[in-house]
Write a structure and sequence with these properties.
heterodimer; A: 210 residues; mainly alpha; Four Helix Bundle (Hemerythrin (Met), subunit A); 9 helices; 0% strand; elongated; B: 471 residues; two-stranded antiparallel sheet; 19 helices; globular
Chain lengths: 210, 471
């Protein structure tokens, strides 16, 4: 029980602290790092209550995709003066310790949670949620999501559809004068429409009409 | 699943959205077709609403989705308003060049989101509906992406609305944590006033909802978004989402939080007072008609919320009547804005209306009726709307609310009357080109006539609304 509370407060404090740092930090890249730390701490909390599926999804989707995407966007953006600072000069002095610190915390968190989950199951069992051990997490989730919550599942799909339509509407531009390849037309071209036989008179040349 | 026939309108709308999307993608340049089909789909959905009897009251999907008289009435109101907005904005959309097939499809999906919000009886369903609606609205606001103002409005609305959704979600999670359920019935059984956490949750949820109806102090986005977005979207914005937002307000206040009336009543009274005062005062200096309508919307939502603050069935009914009449007046005003066009350029300043009565006497009379009604002058419908609200407020002895409401009505009459003065007494400007568009004319004249003759037969609307018994 005590171990459980210690871990809970450890992760929550890190989560809250890093969430604050996301908006407080001056450097955008640091903000994204803190965001990653926040996601990882929260996924650790999920794993602690026995929702390992949610925790892992959180890691894969948010850390693996969203946060890395953020990182790319931030680096692509021309963050004026910071750009020079980031790539040369004080790089070694200012960023390495910082990055290392966050990496170490993340590493420790993962060791604690995955170690605890794997080797000492009773460490995590004190949560108040009743878990049926005969089912895996994924199985249990699938059981309700396609039955009791089917309308919500469908709605979520519809929301994603709208998001996709929106993204296309707002970014797609029809370019004028682009010559596209049409394989079908290319392959189905006959000799008759591509080749003209011209009777060339000497010293007159050929008169082409295009 | 035997009750699935109760949600046929929603199912039909969902399927139509997908079919229309496919049609639009594979059939090039089909904006006209898709737009007309969407209007027909909305009409068909409206008819399908009456597939089951009016008195049906049922809950579906483990009590998370409710069909009752309130939801039926509000859905019908949403759909009718949406149809008229579509009819009146067709020419505008084509002229300013936002005629892409996605436009009507996004309108349909926003409407679907609103229908789900109206029927929701569970925090998750409510949030899903809200997101579906807001996501479509974000895109619609910035639909004219070549215009800086439209893009700016879209970004502003997105950032602020996402923030408010975050607050709302935080409130929901607090409520879920303290009441152990997301279902409205179970929440009302499980929370009580000694529970500080749930009161925090209520505050956060009310903040999020107040943002959605653009009530003070969460109104900052409204003027900019109304002004920046294309007028067709502004018309949609000013008319349709208010219905869903107010229904959700009614549901939240009177189902899950009914045991905490004393706690939320103060908040609603404050929001209502602040909206009425700001709506009346801030609109005075405006020169842009759309911006003026935004402030007027803020003020009018204040009156509707005053009805909700009473905590009585009468108050709710008066708020619903208020909303219905307000929608009608707004529809008329926006039809007039759609008509202000010379050589394919649309004008939206108040000064452009100068001397309208010389060139366009009929439109001027319509505007006169609509503006008098907005100001609340008898015997027009707008007067009755305010009358019912203040009656309900006085009945529960909230005299301060009533007195301040009446004072702000008088103040706000100033800027409505100023427009009338500009129309009738200023020097005429160039003549506007009037379209042959039937939909636009029908919306304008229908709304004007209903507002004009409402007093002859007021019991029609009152009888319909009096069946709404939430408590």
């Amino acid at each position: 029980m005590i171990a459980h509370s210690i871990f809970f407060y450890f992760f929550s404090i890190i989560a809250v602290f890093s969430a604050i740092m996301v908006i407080a930090s001056q450097n955008t890249v640091h903000s994204v790092f803190f965001l990653i730390l926040d996601f990882i701490s929260i996924s650790c909390l999920f794993i602690m209550i026995g929702a390992e599926f949610l925790g892992m999804i959180m890691l894969i989707v948010y850390v693996g995709a969203v946060a890395v995407l953020f990182l790319f966007v931030v680096m692509m953006l021309n963050v004026a003066q910071q750009k020079d600072e980031w790539f040369k000069g004080k790089f070694f002095t200012s960023h390495i310790p910082f990055g290392t610190l966050i990496s170490i915390i993340i590493f420790l968190e993962l060791i604690i949670v995955i170690g605890g989950w794997k080797y000492k199951p009773n460490l995590i069992e004190t949560s108040s949620i009743q878990i049926d051990n005969n089912f895996t997490n994924t199985h249990a989730l699938g059981n309700v999501i396609y039955t009791d919550y089917i309308h919500l599942f469908q709605l979520a799909g519809l929301i994603l559809l709208v998001a996709m339509i929106g993204a296309i509407v707002l970014t797609y531009r029809k370019r004028e004068g682009v010559k596209r390849q049409s394989y079908f037309r290319q392959v189905s071209r006959e000799k008759a429409e591509g080749v003209t036989l011209v009777d060339v008179k000497s010293n007159k040349g050929v008169n082409l009409n295009d | 699943m035997d009750q699935l026939n109760l949600i046929i309108p929603e199912l039909f709308l969902t399927t139509s959205i997908m079919i229309l999307l496919m049609l639009g993608v594979f059939y090039k340049n089909s904006f006209n077709l898709i737009f007309k089909l969407s209007t027909i789909v909305l009409l068909a959905t409206f008819i399908l609403l009456f597939n089951h009897s009016v008195d049906t009251s049922a809950t579906l999907f483990n009590n998370s989705y409710t069909i009752d008289y309130l939801s039926l009435f509000m859905k019908a109101l949403t759909l009718v308003a949406c149809i008229f907005v579509m009819l009146s904005s067709f020419d505008y959309i084509k002229l300013i060049g936002i005629n892409k097939i996605e436009y009507p499809i996004l309108i349909l999906s926003a409407t679907l989101g609103m229908m789900i919000m109206i029927s929701s009886y569970d925090l998750i369903v409510f949030y899903m509906g809200l997101e579906l609606q807001s996501l479509s609205l974000y895109v619609l606001v910035s639909f004219n992406r070549d215009s800086y103002r439209s893009t700016e409005a879209g970004l502003k609305y997105f950032v602020l609305s996402a923030l408010s959704s975050g607050l709302l979600l935080y409130g929901c999670s607090l409520i879920y944590g303290f009441s152990n359920s997301t279902n409205f019935d179970l929440i009302s059984q499980n929370i009580d006033q000694f529970n500080t956490g749930s009161i925090f949750g209520i505050v956060f949820i009310l903040v999020g909802l107040a943002f959605k109806v653009s009530a003070v102090p969460f109104h900052m986005w409204a003027p900019d978004v109304y002004e920046g977005s294309p007028t067709s979207v502004t018309a949609f914005f000013a008319i349709v989402p208010k219905v869903a937002a107010l229904t959700v307000f009614i549901r939240f206040l009177y189902v899950p939080f009914i045991n905490l009336v004393d706690q939320w009543q103060m908040i609603i009274i404050f929001i209502s007072l602040a909206s009425m005062i700001l709506g009346a005062v801030a609109a005075i200096g405006q020169t842009n008609l759309k911006r003026l309508m935004a402030y007027s919307a803020i003020g009018h939502m204040g009156y509707a919320l005053a009805g909700l603050a009473t905590g009585s069935n009468e108050g709710i009914q008066s708020a619903v009547i208020y909303l219905s009449i307000y929608l009608l007046m707004n529809l008329g005003i926006f039809s007039c804005i759609f008509m202000m066009k010379r050589k394919d350029i649309f004008y939206e300043d108040i000064q452009d209306l100068s001397g309208l009565s010389k060139n366009h006497p009929i439109i001027s009379v319509c505007l006169l009726v609509l503006l008098f009604s907005l100001a609340g002058i008898p015997p027009l419908a707008g007067f009755f709307a305010k009358f019912y609200v203040f009656m309900a407020v006085i009945k529960v002895e909230m005299y301060t609310l009533a007195i301040i409401g009446l004072i702000t009505t008088v103040i706000s009459a100033f800027y409505y009357l100023r427009i009338i003065k500009i129309i009738y007494f200023d020097d005429p400007k160039e003549i506007f080109e009037i379209d042959k568009n039937l939909g636009l004319k029908v919306s304008l004249f229908l709304s004007t006539i209903i507002i004009l003759i409402y007093f002859i037969y007021p019991s029609l609307l009152i009888d319909m609304v009096s069946n709404i018994n939430v408590i």
